[in-house]
Amino acid sequence: MANRYSLYAVILFVFLQSLVLAASEWVKLTTPNFELYTSAGEKKGREAILYFEQVRSFFMQASASKRGSDFPVRIIAFRGEKQYEPYRPNDSAIAYYIEGRNRDYIVMRDISIEHFPVAVHEYTHLIVRRAGLKLPPWLNEGLAELYSTLKPAGNKAAVGDIIPGRARQLVSSELIPLDVLTNVDHSSPLYNERDRAGMFYAESWALTHMLYFSPEYRVNFTKFLTAISSGKPMEEACQTAFAKNIREVQRDLGVYLKGQRFYRAVFDVKLDKSAEDPDVTGVSEFESRVLTADLLAVTHKINEALSAYQELAKSNPDSPEVEESLGYLAWQSGDRDAARGHFEHAVATGSKSARVYYDYAMLSRQGSDAVKNALPAFRKALELKPDYAEARLQFGLMLVNTHDYSEAIAQLRQVKNVDGAQAQWYFPALATAYLQTGDKEKAREYAGFAKKWAQTPQQVERADALLRSLETKKVTAQAMQSAAQANEDRPTIRRTEPGAFTVVEQGPAANPFVEKADQMSHVEGIAQRLDCSGKAARFHVLVGKTAMVFAIPDPDRVQIKHSSELKHDFACGGQKPYKVSVDYAVLPDSKTGTAGIVRGLEF
Fold this sequence. Notes:
Blueprint: H1 2-19, E1 27-30, E2 34-38, H2 42-62, E3 73-77, H3 81-84, E4 95-99, E5 104-108, H4 116-130, H5 137-147, E6 151-153, E7 156-159, H6 164-172, H7 178-181, H8 189-192, H9 194-213, H10 215-218, H11 221-229, H12 234-242, H13 246-258, E8 265-268, H14 273-276, E9 279-282, H15 285-298, H16 302-315, H17 320-332, H18 336-348, H19 354-363, H20 370-384, H21 389-401, H22 405-412, H23 420-436, H24 440-453, H25 457-489, E10 520-531, E11 537-543, E12 546-552, E13 559-561, E14 573-574, E15 579-589, E16 594-602
Parallel strand pairs: 2-3, 3-5, 13-16
Antiparallel strand pairs: 1-2, 1-9, 4-5, 6-7, 7-8, 10-11, 10-14, 10-15, 11-12, 15-16
Helix pairs in contact: 4-5, 5-9, 6-9, 11-12, 15-16, 15-17, 16-17, 17-18, 18-19, 19-20, 20-21, 21-22, 21-23, 22-23, 23-24, 23-25, 24-25
């Protein structure tokens, strides 16, 4: 048995050594949007990273979405087949794109210029994902094939050239019916089997080329893209965008492929000086070993990656980089607690990664130590990377939830560009923060934006509740102002002699549970359910046609008005429908879905 374990140790050592190139073979080139590691030499590395910067410039100008990544895309370009083999995802891939937990990767077998189109194909998938487009396989691959023809030349870039191999396949094979092609999913033989996938890719490219460039279709291509991305089937999307059914599109495709004229587009390419002149540094043996171990991890070779990290940890026990990588490996494997532990160790040993501080903060937002751990981690992430938009947004959201509204406004207002996914959280948070600081006009403005960008019925309901609350406050303020004016117009009774007094009609007693800082609101509706499963009970009330939820952290601190009761025992669960009036402190909580805290109930 001892000899067997010794043999395993030798095999493991040889395997690990085969994954690591000599430090002198690696070079790192860095631009604002890419970091390229290559063992193919600095000259080829410069050519490759400039090419990718030009491609990115094209996408940023041609795409409606201008939001880039918070971190550079990592490109790993090997010198050839032998070095590339341990990281190859399948037998045919000479380049691929893969999304890691902490960064995006483009991996290339080599930096041969004839393989650049494959790398651009993969980069297109990254752009589509980042733009938030949800495309069916035929259009996702069709766009990737279309953009793979991108050819930068100086300050111009051309796209749309014919792909000879795809064209030959279209000529020699019968077209796939569009109702079949456009319903292919990732499990379909047309997508996965090599002898059938070729035609799928070729026809997807040809159909996309026609819709993108043909004068008859191109003016409405964006409308079509929006319809498809929203989940509409091909037939409906064609009718919406082109006023054609799928059979007419199929006929037009056949005519287009037999035509004598094909189109392409030429765009200006604008690069910053920093993109044209990358920083070039050598790569240490330690860095190259971490690099290749990270690549094993993102390609799901978990055991090999773990072994490599453990070897690195033995020889570098205080390295934050190894702890960072172990954290992401644990997170990838579903162990969030272990990931947070590794990130905590990386932070303690001096990590310089803004992404690690951000991820540590995100994993630490829950629990008793959330404020102690998460808020400082968000601040450190922004200190290391002030333009880290996602970190500033999440920091602002947590400040709202911890009731630090002034600081939340200061942080959120620094986020200059938000996409649709971010807007659904950004605007409600700002509306709440402005409401709590007394700026009702700003609160009303951002509550309107919150409703516009809401993506779920619950988000619409919360925005409506906030707007109703603001309108209630406006009416209440006007009523109070009118009452004050009426009192000013009423004759004043003054004490004229000792012992004289005035009898004053006593109004209802003030609610003793209303706190000084509360922004109070009032609604009336039908009681539906009392949820007692969390730390605070949640009271569900149907207000008109809107379901609202209110928090009851302490039932003994709710003023009850019901048959002279000072306290009422509620049964948890579904309620027998009854009319109820709710006085509540407006304090929306996006995590629990509550509109505020109940201070008084009357029923």
